[in-house]
Amino acid sequence: MKRPSSTLEERGKWLRHCPLFAELDSTDLGVVAGLSSLHSYAAGEILFHGGTPAGGLHVVVEGLVKVCRYGTDGREQVLHLFGPGEPCGEVALFGGRTYPATAQAVNDTRTLC
């Protein structure tokens, strides 16, 4: 994972496309944007592993993220695909302390966390 730079204005614009933040007024959106940082992931790179402590919510800026679980036999079960503007990892933040599944970049991906 790389942490490229981005402006507060850019982060606010990207957050505005996410349903969780779309209705925030400019002041509140600015606060959230100020707390976020841009992350870049190469195809195949893991954003977070299932069962690990929740470290943040990801909003996909570009690319595609798959959330999956692995069976005891090693088979992968894809639960959901997230694209630009969609939040990923919010279940752990709002409903628990750990991520319930693993998130992996399908292709080169950028997220706000």
Could you characterize what this model shows?
The protein has 113 residues and is α+β, with helices and mostly antiparallel strands. Helix content is 22%, strand content 31%. The chain has three helices and eight strands; from the N terminus they run ααββββββαββ. It has a four-stranded antiparallel sheet with strand order 1-8-3-6, with helices on one face. Strands 2-7-4-5 form a four-stranded antiparallel sheet, with no helix packed on it. A hairpin with a 5-residue loop joins strand 4 and strand 5. The termini are close together.
At a glance:
The chain has 113 residues and is an alpha+beta fold. It has helices at residues 8-16, 26-35, 90-95; strands at residues 38-41, 46-48, 58-62, 65-70, 76-82, 87-88, 102-105, 109-112. The strands form two sheets. It has a four-stranded antiparallel β-sheet, with helices on one face. It has a four-stranded antiparallel β-sheet with strand order 2-7-4-5, with no helix packed on it.
Q: State the order of secondary-structure elements, H for helix, E for strand.
A: HHEEEEEEHEE
Shape: globular
Structural class: alpha+beta
Instruction: Count every helix, treating DSSP H or I runs of 4 or more residues as helices.
Output: 3
Spatially, the strands of the biggest sheet line up as 1-8-3-6
Mean pLDDT: 93
Q: State the helicity in percent bands.
A: 10-25%
Oligomeric grouping of the chains: single chain
Question: What Rg, in angstroms, do the CA atoms define?
Answer: 14 Å
Distance between the ends:
12 Å
Largest sheet: 4 strands, antiparallel
Strand content: 25-35%
Number of strands: 8
Which spans have pLDDT < 50 for at least 5 consecutive residues?
none
